[in-house]
Amino acid sequence: MNKVDLKTLTLQKASDLLKSGEVSSVELCNMYLERVADVDSKVNSFLKVANDKVLAMAEDADKRRAENQSLSDYDGIPVGIKDCIVAEGETCSCASKILENVVSPYDSTAVKKLKAQGFIPFGRLNMDEFAMGSSTENSAYNKTSNPWDTERVPGGSSGGSAASVGASLIPASLGSDTGGSIRQPAAFCGVVGVKPSYGMVSRFGLVAFASSLDQIGPFAKDVTDAAIVLDAISGVDPNDSTTSPEEHPSLVEAVKNAPKDLNGLTVGLPKEYMEMAGLNPEVKAVVDKAIDQAKSLGATIKEVSLPHTKYAVATYYIIATAEASANLARFDGIRYGERVEDPKDLINTYFKSRGAGFGDEVKRRIILGTYVLSSGYYDAYYLRAQKVRTLIRNDFENAFKDCDVLLTPVTPDVAFKFGEKSDPLQMYLADIFTIALNLSGNCGLSLPYGFADDMPVGVQLIAPHFGEEVMFKTAKVLEDNREQKEFIASV
Ligand code: GLN
């Protein structure tokens, strides 16, 4: 019998237990290893767990603690890593056959920063192949289940990262968000997920999907834990020229000093989101409850308009696929990736290796992206999409003239059943509430807030570019005042 209840264990509680000596890091890691061995056969969130290495790192952390040399308050706590974020000596397949058996010789900046604080990279988390998808059904390996109902998807593309935290197999994890891949699975699995502002977290060592949209961010059990992880991984990095040199305020401090109410805060409700056809009324009811809560806590509620919302999905699927087609060109069996046996010549090597190594969705995106960039179509599609992107960014800038944060749904519905969205277009359209802020660069946070159909429902807070401080403070106040105190999956 574990002496710690992993289902309610946060990073803060784990840190206290380590500090007081009630548990050691080796004990803590062993508890998680046992739980993964017991429970992950139902959820299948991890592609691989680094058992021996985890315990060796935990022993080192315990030694440091005994000598008062701890690297931080979190030294010796395990975290999970999405399989597209490299860690030294660990496989990084991006859940693709083409990168099967690839072992990274170096750490991504995010992992390096976590290690510098003593966090232990615990294992590799399942995802949609190359982060393309919204259900994790596109993984070439496991079928990850939602910890609330194993007949349903965990969302995607960071499905393993969300499901592992939702199932309490790990206290926190890293994911990546190009069009919603952190916020949507977080909402489906009842955990907190954050897409930081573009430029907040280095992508060095993140296998690129769409470079102008990708961000790494945390999954955690509560808002404070998400702040702890985001503080640990953010900051300027000479290896990623898109990271901002600006000093970011401590989000842990922001959360700690969050007010008791929302007096003085203006919360914007984008009318195009709230009126969206296809929004499940039960999901809407949860969002309405959060709005009422904000109001009763003193916030001013204001309707705002994001008039170009209707173009967001189309714009995203042109820009993201165009960038993906360029980024994935390197996986050709020569420079990177599994090479087929006995190819006839160079071109045949490319064709066969890519044909065998990529799954259907990845091929679909590469074909679409190559098409929109091809001469003759570039102006009609790619260039036009870039212009619409500017309009979408302007929409957010205008909205934030009148309010501090936006409050919206994260997804039109709760987690769906496996195979339910077999039409790719249907799957793409469900990204409507998350995609626009990847195009604009703003930050967004998904906070579990209620239930519909016995499944968790998240609400999304959106703040201006580098407005994480107000976003986290607002999230903390809503979390403290929400009806449902804890979201604990049954698995
Ligand atoms: N679901 C979106 C897509 O398939 C977003 C993916 C992501 O954020 N990585 O492109």
Number-wise, the strands total: 11
- In helices, the fraction of residues equals 40-55%
What is the overall pLDDT average? 96
Oligomer: single chain
Q: DSSP strand (E) fraction?
A: 5-15%
Largest beta sheet: what is the strand line-up?
A: 1-3-2-4-6-5-10-11-9-7-8
Reading off the top of the CATH hierarchy, the class of the domain at 11-256 is best stated as Alpha Beta
Q: Can you count the helices?
A: 17
Q: What is the CA–CA distance across the termini?
A: 17 Å
Largest sheet: 11 strands, mixed
The unreliable regions are none
Tell me the CATH architecture of the domain at 11-256.
Answer: Alpha-Beta Complex
CATH superfamily of the domain at 11-256: Amidase signature (AS) domain
Chemical compounds bound to the protein: glutamine
* Helix vs. strand class: alpha/beta
Shape: globular
Radius of gyration: 21 Å
**Could you please say which CATH topology of the domain at 11-256 applies here?**
Amidase signature (AS) enzymes
What are the secondary-structure elements, in order, as H or E? Answer: HHEHEHEHEHEEHHEHHEHHHHEHHEEH
